Amino acid sequence: xxKAFIIAFLLFAxxxxxxxxxxxxxxxxxxxxxxxxxxxxxxxxxxxxxxxxVAEMKSFGLQPMDGKSFKQPFLFSVNTFPGKMELQINxxxxxxxxxxxxxxxxxxxxTKTNLTQQDSTHFIAxxxxxxxSLQDKLTWSVAQKVNDFTEIMVKKSALAQPxxxxxxxIENVFVPDFRASNICAMVKGTAKPDSILxxxxxxxxxxxxxxxxxxxxxxxxxxxxxxxxxLAKYYASHPQRYTMAFICFAGEEAGILGSxxxxxxxxxxxxxxxxxxxxxxxxxxxxxxxVVNATQYPKEFALLNQINDSGxxxxxxxxxxxxxxxxxxxxxxxxxxxxxxxxxxxxxxYHDVYDQPKTLPFTVYEKLFKLFVGFNSALxx
Length: 381
Fold this sequence. Notes:
single chain; five-stranded mixed sheet; 28% helix
């Protein structure tokens, strides 16, 4: 029976949803545009992204998960860098994001002083509480606290000589009650509305470092949000036997905070969630994909592979065990069966200014879309 269903699904798939990449590309370009400023903590970037996602879901005809509002607001603390971001080493002006980044928990500092070498990669200004480290690659993040020192990471290739002098004008603002929102929507099931299949992705990214540098976050996770919205658009036009639900989380980069808040304050009965698939960084796929929690749910993983093998969608789906590395984690801790899927291959940009839409290949986007629809259909049958 299952084999017959898969064959019927594959025949249907070739005709029913050969998805146009134009919507995904257009959505990705919007999410990574300067207007959204890295979907982060300055220039109102995260809220602008949230409003855009809500507008898209409304246009598809989705309903708020709680029947009232698409937004589930919550608060958390965050260290931000909204203004000055200036650095000179040895009298050489360096470019934020490309030549240097500031440690995410750093305090602001305005000074001009000498540096003392500690080892081959670390240099300090003791009185000013500054630590400079030389790095091969610059990778930024988000912090919920402020340290009593300033950490500056400089790309090795940006300097001709080891750091001897430093001049800085760096501004930080700690926000103890930053307001963010999860975006929660659904398409009610036609036969078993109390059974839920849930698709999730985080829409926040790192935001900006200073007034002129932002992190676009194309693969992480503009790709996942674009993919989720494409699925939401499809299911809004093709209601299923089960309720199809969608959540775009905020606060993932600050410590998977949005999904933690949702599981502690759920808008649906978590016991009614038949399965959850979280997508984070799905813009590549040349070498396949990996599924976190594959070893936790071997029957569902076998079914996913069966759909994949029958449709020749991805070259390989690698199994991985339990990991607290994205928004699926707190759901599984509450007993919700869940996968976290990410694709592999292609660009290596991650948490840097080079994670841009123009470099994202969307190699297996359409095939991944068909794989998801097929897997969801198999779960309902």
